[in-house]
Amino acid sequence: MSPSTFRTELLLTGWAALAGGCVMGPPPLDNPTSSPRAEQRSEARALEQAEAECAAKGKHAVAERSEGETLYHCAD
Question: What's the CA gap between 50 and 5, in Å, rounded?
Answer without folding.
Answer: 67
